[in-house]
Design a protein that fits this description.
There is one protein chain. The protein is built from 8 helices and no strands. It is flat and about 50 Å long. It is mainly alpha-helical. The longest helix is centred in the last third of the chain and has 33 residues, at about 170-200.
């Protein structure tokens, strides 16, 4: 959707990093793994926020960097013809782990109501599952729905930055993510039904 266009702009601005990184031996799967490591590091800092609330600032920066890796791994794979089924599978799998570890850290750190946190986590996973299942059945889901990963990362990053200044921002973010992700699941289900319905009636 709108923020997915931001992701394309993001790739355009930083896609130039793909070539020099590739020249020094970095490969798409490496960036995918680094993205997960950055998400895990962000989760650790979120968990440690009780020691120093300002740790949420570098945590937000790490979320942004993990998003950069997510943009660059795909850009690099396309640029150098290194797109593979294994790479695509690994990218999707590790992205889900990255999303989950950050949201779980917000939950166990007490920065949100656990109900909203779990609901946001389930919604995030179902958004990805809906796409994977639909595309396995031949229906493309790219850019379908309001809450793709780019949108979710932006919301989470913004709330993490605001939290030290306005306590409760991450709880609000979990509520927003809950609504956004579950609406997206419905949008994808409706889109799939319409596409397959057209094919079945053709």
């Amino acid at each position: 959707m709108v923020l997915s266009r931001f992701k394309k702009l993001f790739e355009g601005l930083f896609g130039g990093l793909a070539a020099p990184l590739h020249d020094v031996g970095v490969r798409p799967n490496t960036l995918t793994a680094v993205g997960l490591a950055l998400s895990a590091a962000s989760a650790v800092l979120i968990y440690m926020h009780k020691l120093m609330l300002e740790l949420l600032y570098p945590s937000a920066a790490l979320i942004i960097l993990s998003g950069l890796c997510d943009a660059l791994d795909g850009a690099m794979a396309r640029m150098f013809g290194e797109e593979t089924p294994v790479g695509g599978f690994l990218d999707s799998l590790l992205d889900r782990y990255g999303d989950a570890v950050v949201i779980c850290s917000v939950i166990v750190s007490g920065l949100c109501n656990p109900v909203w946190g779990v609901a946001a986590l389930v919604g995030s996973l179902l958004v990805s599952y809906a796409r994977a299942r639909a595309e396995a059945l031949g229906v493309r889901m790219a850019s379908v729905g309001l809450g793709e990963r780019a949108e979710r990362l932006i919301i989470l990053t913004t709330a993490t930055l605001i939290e030290p200044l306005a306590r409760g921002a991450l709880n609000v973010a979990m509520i927003v993510l809950t609504a956004l992700t579950h609406v997206t699941v419905v949008q994808r289900a409706v889109y799939f039904w319409r596409r397959k319905g057209v094919e079945d009636n053709a």
